[in-house]
């Protein structure tokens, strides 16, 4: 388990400015992200920000049917690999070691940004958290939740002076194998621009 740095008290650019500047960035420079930057990306996209476990993004019934995985290509202090974000502890749990950029690129129709980004954040569905309450509407609510999280990633990346790009075009089966066999809904690359 890797405990992430605290983010309280750190402020970026005003929200309105982040919204105006937000664009999909597909080309990334070399270098690494700091552990503090990754911590902020995760906290302000899916971290616990309120009492009773409420998070930075909305979820139908506050059931949080998304797991957030991070494929680390280049982050100071972290080995390359696949990590699961644990919002309750604001930490990362190592799931697989190694570099998966080429494998993700092949699964995503050759989109090289998956290989070049410092991190790829995968939003993975956990429908059983929601099905008991919402039945056939579960898929809709999970998809909406993934969109909320992705937008928060975009805005925090922009606030940090980083680039981000959401990806929905990939082979479901091969991408899910990278992320423990779970259904990947959305990917967001983040890197230096």
What would you note in describing this structure?
- 34% of the residues lie in helices and 23% in strands.
- It is built from seven helices and seven strands; from the N terminus they run βααβββααβααβαβ.
- It has helices spanning 15-21, 35-46, 101-107, 113-116, 128-134, 138-159, 172-178, and strands at residues 2-3, 66-72, 81-86, 91-97, 119-125, 162-167, 184-192.
- It has a seven-stranded antiparallel beta sheet, with helices on both faces.
- Helix 1 (15-21) crosses helix 6.
- The two termini are 29 Å apart.
Q: Sketch the topology as an H/E string, one letter per element.
A: EHHEEEHHEHHEHE
Q: Extract low-pLDDT stretches.
A: none
Strand content: 15-25%
Arrangement of strands in the largest sheet: 1-4-3-2-5-7-6
Q: Give the overall form.
A: globular
Q: Please tell me the overall pLDDT.
A: 96
Radius of gyration: 16 Å
The number of distinct β-strands equals 7
Name the structural class.
alpha+beta
Short description:
Helices cover about 35% and strands about 25% of the residues.
